[in-house]
Amino acid sequence: MAKKKLNLQNISKKGEHWDDTFRLMSWWDADKVANAKVMVVGAGALGNEVLKNLALMNVGNIFIVDFDTIEYANLCRSVLFREKDIKRDKFKSLIAAERIKEMNPNINVQAVNGDIMIDVGLGVFDRMDVIIGCLDNRIARLFINRYAYKTGKVWIDGAILNMSGQLNVYKNEVSCYECALTDTDWANIRTKLGCADVAQRNSSAGRVPTTPISSSIIAAMQVQEALKIIHNYEDKSMMGEQFTYDGMNNWIVNFASPPLKDECESHYALQKDEIIRMKNLTHEDTVEDAIKKIKKQLKAEQISISLNYKIITEVTSMSTDKSHKVLIPEPHFSEVAQAEYQEEIGEVLGITKYVDYISEDFEDGKVSLKACGVPPLQILTVETEKDIFFVECTKDEPYLTF
Ligand SMILES: [Zn+2]
Fold it and tell me: Which of 169, 216, 227, 306 is the most exposed place for a label (fewest CB within 10 A)?
């Protein structure tokens, strides 16, 4: 691998490197770490500790995703948040980014205030070296698992409860989050999947009772595993094992990961040469223009862009039967529709029409893919009369700031 030019910012006035101490370790590769791209999903208790460690270890490019704001209850477990952040009504992702950049100005940090299930394009996953999950719910984990599998990325999942914790390193064909789900887990996921509201869908049954000790233990191990992946020491990692820690009874056990199932829906990996990177396609294109460009690229007569969510095109009041034509990606339904179309408090609006694909007969060709819920750098699944293709909105590349 070509060595990257030495980052001058990385040297103090006295000529010291940020990571001089780490360079004393024989396995440390300063360039690999400084060039690494890591996505951290969730900036809560675990996320705070993971981000702190990544910044201290000089991991050069960090992409943070979270949609929550900071509350008082978060402060006792979040090294990066302060009481004043609550008053500022700021988002966890943005404040966490600001604070780790303050700790280590040499690193690049990009924060997205959004939902991992709809706001991050598959192309962003594809450009990462490793993904770290710091979540408290199964449904978001399931989505990360599917996206990571599709793009062939290792993802490191952490979980904490009380004085205990768990860690899993998932890699295609070795271990898989979805394969390990039980029937009870699925029942729980299905209930929440039916819920249109983002916050509701992602919420746990209640506040998770845990401590900053558990999160710092598990998060530290997550970052240690990430560093092994960045250094290509996969054989030293915990892949294929379920690391379990019980702080009250002082035991640590590595169980073997459950075997992979043949019928698992996560098991679809895109081949690198399967992704058609369209440099002239962006999620800001209108539906009309995007269809025109993709048809030309694929030399197809007809195309249909599949979506993994619904676009609601009509809502109707349950009390007055009055219908409204709308265009709302279902994941944004409650925030947008309820507020805009409710004529009286407590009025219930039902979804009466929707589509789950975009084609030439789409309601309004003048709206953008973005308005239809397509995030930047998305890899679209496109069906033509010939085959299924995977088309990336590569013109969105500048969206990723590193
Ligand atoms: Zn699986």
Answer: 306
22-31, 166-175, 228-237, 305-314: the lowest-pLDDT one: 305-314
Ligand 1 centroid, distance to 255 Cα (angstroms): 17
Q: Is the pLDDT of residue 1 over 50?
A: no
**How many angstroms does the Cα of residue 125 sit away from the middle of ligand 1?**
18
Q: What is the pLDDT of residue 197?
A: 67
Picking from 354, 307, 301, 285, the residue whose alpha carbon sits closest to that of residue 326 is 354
Instruction: Determine the distance separating the centroid of ligand 1 and the alpha carbon of 339, expressed in angstroms.
Output: 39
Report the pLDDT value the prediction gives residue 330, as an integer from 0 to 100: 85
Å from CA of 175 to ligand 1 middle? 7
Residue 2 CA, ligand 1 centroid: distance in Å? 35
User: What integer pLDDT is reported at residue 189 of this predicted model?
Assistant: 85
Residue type, 324: H
Q: Which stretches within 278-336 are classed as H helix?
A: 287-298, 333
- How many angstroms separate the alpha carbon of residue 265 from the centre of ligand 1? 7
Residue 126 has pLDDT above 70, yes or no: yes
Rounded distance between C-alpha atoms, residue 25 and residue 36, angstroms = 18
Record the tokens describing residue 309, joined without a space: 């969510």
Query: How much distance in Å is there from the Cα of 226 to the middle of ligand 1?
Result: 21
How far is the centre of ligand 1, averaged over its atoms, from the C-alpha of 129 (Å)? 21
Task: Tell me the average pLDDT across 100-119.
Answer: 95
Question: What is the distance in A from the centroid of ligand 1 to the CA of 32?
Answer: 30
DSSP string, 196-225: --HHHHH--SS---B-HHHHHHHHHHHHHH
- Domains, the chain, ordered by start: 8-256 (3.40.50.720), 272-399 (no CATH)
> For residue 72, with 0-12 CB atoms within 10 Å meaning exposed, 13-18 middle and 19 or more buried, which class applies?
exposed
**Residue among 126, 110, 171 at smallest CA distance from 145:** 171
Contact 351, 368 (CB under 8 A): no
Å from CA of 176 to ligand 1 middle: 5
